[in-house]
TrEMBL record:
One GO CC term, this protein: plasma membrane
Signal peptide as annotated in the record: none
Principal place of residence: membrane
Family: Belongs to the G-protein coupled receptor 1 family.
Molecular functions per Gene Ontology: G protein-coupled receptor activity; olfactory receptor activity
Residue ranges constituting the G-protein coupled receptors family 1 profile domain according to the UniProt record: 41-294
Matches recorded under CDD domains: 7tmA_OR6C-like (cd15912)
Membrane topology: Multi-pass membrane protein
Pfam family, one: 7tm_4
Location(s) in or outside the cell: Cell membrane
The name this protein goes by in its record: Olfactory receptor
Transmembrane intervals: 26-50, 62-82, 102-120, 132-158, 200-229, 241-263
């Protein structure tokens, strides 16, 4: 095909949410509910860390970063998805699609770095409790967080620019409900092998190294368990077990879905029908579960929430009593 005379597309057509006869409103309501839960759950964590000085600790600092990422990750495509579902027009402008693609992967890659930092924080807190305060200082945590955000920003910048400069002539229909790399490359003209190789390499380096570091930080779980068992306080044992178990649940959901979707040498020739189903795990399910998994059994967060409610509603303690 002669790409020199290619007329560049100005918009793409996205697939809508899976449509089941008579259940369109139910599907829309479920996605909207999950999105609102994501905003409220993660927003609550960010607000609690800012308002309550008792939560100004490394763990909650990194957790607030993770919450901000989850909000940004879902907001990069869910509002547009819901608007398209309500309207007959499923289009998205070319530069809007590229912007959505970039921020989707920017937040996604940064999330792995932040999860790695959370695992590092938990390892130091549980295995080196006496040195924890001197190792994980506020200055060190801030520098680590900035490094994670910068690494996420620059790691996909070149790939995003290359994707934006590809010719799109044969089709403008993206076989996905948001602008993802694989479906976009499938309709692109020109040689996409370099971009595919960069994407695969990025997945291997970032995701695999993050997972490897997370597993090593837990020291194959055995060392942490032995450390926990030597703790004299039952409360400390329960808190440590709860934190480790919560983190591992997030790791299994997030890493498992990302491995399935993106750890493919030739992603543009994959089965997108299956990929679209699995994508919900890391695009919406994991961001919704994160605040609940990390905080549902966390007494410090619960106390911070009750204190905030007591300040807003003076009569609440008497009512509860």
């Amino acid at each position: 095909m002669n790409l020199t005379n290619c007329t560049r597309v100005t918009e793409f057509i996205l697939f809508r949410l899976p449509s089941v006869l008579g259940m369109e409103h139910l599907i829309f309501s479920c996605v909207l509910l999950l999105y609102l839960l994501c905003l409220m759950g993660n927003g609550l964590i960010i607000m609690m860390v800012i308002v309550d000085r008792h939560l100004r600790k490394p763990m909650y600092f990194f957790l607030s970063n993770l919450s901000f990422i989850d909000i940004g990750h879902t907001t990069s495509f869910i509002p547009k998805l819901l608007v398209n579902y309500l309207s007959a027009n499923n289009s998205i402008c070319f530069y809007c699609c590229i912007t959505q693609l970039y921020f989707y992967f920017f937040f996604g890659v940064t999330e792995f770095f932040i999860i790695t930092l959370i695992s590092l924080d938990r390892y130091v807190a549980i295995c080196h409790p006496l040195r924890y305060a001197t190792i994980m200082t506020s200055g060190v945590c801030l520098k680590l967080a900035i490094a994670a955000w910068c690494a996420g920003f620059f790691s996909i910048l070149y790939q995003g620019v290359m994707t934006a400069n590809l010719p799109y002539c044969t089709s403008n229909i993206i076989n996905h409900f948001y602008c993802d790399e694989g479906p976009l490359l499938k309709i692109a003209g020109g040689d996409t092998h370099i971009i595919e190789s960069l994407g695969f390499l990025l997945t291997v380096l970032v995701v695999m190294s993050s997972l490897l570091f997370t597993l090593i930080s837990y020291l194959f779980i055995l060392f942490i368990i032995s450390t926990i068992l030597r703790m004299p306080s039952n409360t400390r044992q329960q808190r440590a077990f709860s934190t480790c178990a919560s983190h591992l649940i997030v790791v299994c959901i997030l890493y498992g879905s990302v491995f399935f979707v993106y750890l493919r040498p030739n992603v543009k020739n994959s089965s997108f029908n299956v990929i679209k189903s699995v994508s919900w795990l890391n695009t919406l399910v994991a961001p919704v579960l994160n605040p609940f998994i990390y905080t549902i059994r966390n007494n410090e967060v619960k106390e911070a929430v009750w204190k905030l409610l007591e300040r807003k509603t003076p009569g609440l303690p008497n009512i509860l009593a």
